[in-house]
Amino acid sequence: MTNGTENKEPAKKSNFIHLQIEQDLKDNKNNGRVHTRFPPEPNGYLHIGHAKSICLNFGIAEKFGGKCNLRFDDTNPTKEEMEYVDSIMKDVRWLGFDWEDRLFYASDYFGKLYDFAVQLINEGKAYVDDQGAETISQQKGTPTRPGMESPFRDRSSEENLDLFQRMAAGEFDEGARVLRAKIDMASPNMHMRDPIIYRIMKAHHHRTGGKWQVYPMYDFAHGQSDYWEGITHSVCTLEFEVHRPLYNWFIDQLIEGDYRPRQVEFARLNLTYTVMSKRRLLELVKEGYVNGWDDPRMPTISGLRRRGYTPESIRSFSDRIGVTKVDGMIDVSLLEYSVRDHLNKTAQRVMGVLNPMKVIITNYPEGQEEEHDAINNPEDPEMGSRKVSFSRELYIEQEDFMEDPPRKFFRLALGREVRLRYAYFITCNDVIKDKDGNITELHCTYDPASRGGNSPDGRKVKATLHWVSVKHAVKAEVRLYDRLFNDEDPGGHKDVDFKEFLNPDSLNVLPECFIEPFVSDAKPLDNFQFERLGYFNLDFDSTPGKPVFNRTVPLRDSWTKEQNK
Ligand code: ATP
Ligand code: MG
């Protein structure tokens, strides 16, 4: 597991795939070309694991002056939809990558794949099997026991061709027949035991409509698509390592010159407290456990975007985790670190109060107001400063006051003086309560000589509080998020459904928060740091006069901690 605070600098490390490519270039393989692809199946929205693959594939093209295609692996018409295609393109672009004019679909190759299947039939390398899927699977054997040859294995090419054509013409029912490659039922590699390459499906395809009644299997489409696109390095996750001999077998049947694509496997990304399979994410969406694919608690790219993650933070996360051959689990706090690190450098600071407590400055004239200078981003002087309005009635955070403070509580208490950030020193003199004993407001006095929050005579205060002026603040809804799951590996329990580990407190909506009016010009996705509270961004649910903010991540607060010492 990686510690969230290690590796502060997002160094562009060389990984083992880069080294392999360097070697291939030295050997002048494929005439020195480097061409990768990102091949999503449009059956769901992309998640942070896909982001790793996108950064890797497009990153290789950038590093070696090559190209990277976007290719939809749309061979399964029952699960795929246009909505997913559109969301995937949006997400890849948002991450900052460009496939230029190289947008492809496996379905573009349905005709060529069909012709290739016919070629295999004519060469005696494929046959139509009339057995059902279950029988075929029973005959597959086990890794240590060879499989059984199908009774239909030795049909003549003529008969196979006739049957395959009739399958394609829609003459048979789904499941009645399949086309299989004729390889080796005794191969130690199960994938080589006469794999199914075509099946009958009477489904509407999102691009080819009702044209096809037979559809190629993923393994039959993928490598061939690579070959026809001139892909040199077909980067995929480790579970495909055992498919590689089959990938190569198909390429062997297809190849004409020197060029051949090469499959390279790497470890997929797993994150603590997260489920990463599209099937499970779809379940959360369909069954209403979250509010859609872009719910800010989802590990989808659209969810992270809505939550306030920036493309830079996801790319630097991807650099930090590196690329290996060993499956592991990355601490989700490393992802949170990446966005905190980026927003610390770029986010506009404002003050906002989440749980308001009213403060009356009793020695400040009613109706009077004034402005103070506030720094927009201490990490970036070029961002300049802004004015914040001060008046007699303010809000501070409820948590910043205690009537009976324990020894280690250094913030506001009766008779104690603290600093209001950028404004004045104030002292609390009185606590006003309702008939039930709840505190309704605090009466304080300010020291006019401490203007700007500076000590007039060297006297020290132990805390600096954020605040807003009641009259000037904008009312906002703020959504605080916690992890969606309260288990480190929710998908890793054999007998317990992952949904059992959903965190019931993953969303906490605060309907009445007050933020500096500076935010009233914000556009959805604009990032802010609310001082002392974390990073927040404006949500799409905002309406005129009623902003809604998401907390991206809490802050590891430095200035209050320092001053609270
Ligand atoms: P899932 O397992 O989440 O359903 P998938 O592998 O079925 O995902 P695809 O659309 O087929 O999803 O994936 C597109 C590309 O993204 C593939 O090259 C795949 O290897 C890669 N990919 C998917 N999940 C991860 C992950 N967790 N880490 C790294 N790469 C991934
Ligand atoms: Mg897949």
Structure notes:
- The structure is a single chain.
- With 565 residues, this protein is an alpha/beta fold.
- Among the domains are: 110-216, Alpha-Beta Complex (Glutamyl-tRNA Synthetase, domain 3), CATH 3.90.800.10; 270-346 and 479-513 and 544-565, Glutamyl-trna Synthetase, Domain 2 (Glutamyl-tRNA Synthetase, domain 2); 348-472, Beta Barrel (Ribosomal Protein L25, Chain P), CATH 2.40.240.
- It is 25% helix and 22% strand.
- The chain has helices at residues 16-26, 48-64, 82-94, 110-122, 133-138, 157-168, 218-229, 244-254, 278-286, 301-307, 311-321, 332-346, 559-564, and strands spanning 35-38, 67-72, 103-105, 126-129, 178-181, 196-200, 214-216, 233-237, 262-266, 348-350, 352-353, 356-361, 369-375, 385-391, 393-397, 417-420, 425-433, 439-446, 464-465, 468-469, 474-481, 507-515, 527-530, 534-538, 548-553.
- The strands form six sheets. A seven-stranded mixed sheet has the order 10-23-24-25-21-22-11, covered by helices on one side. It has a seven-stranded mixed sheet with strand order 19-16-17-18-12-15-20.
- Helix 2 links the parallel strand 1 and strand 2.
- The longest helix is centred in the N-terminal third of the chain and has 17 residues, at 48-64.
- The chain starts with 15 loop residues before the first helix and ends with a helix.
- The model is unreliable at 1-10 and 557-565 (pLDDT under 50).
- Bound molecules: adenosine-5'-triphosphate and magnesium ion.
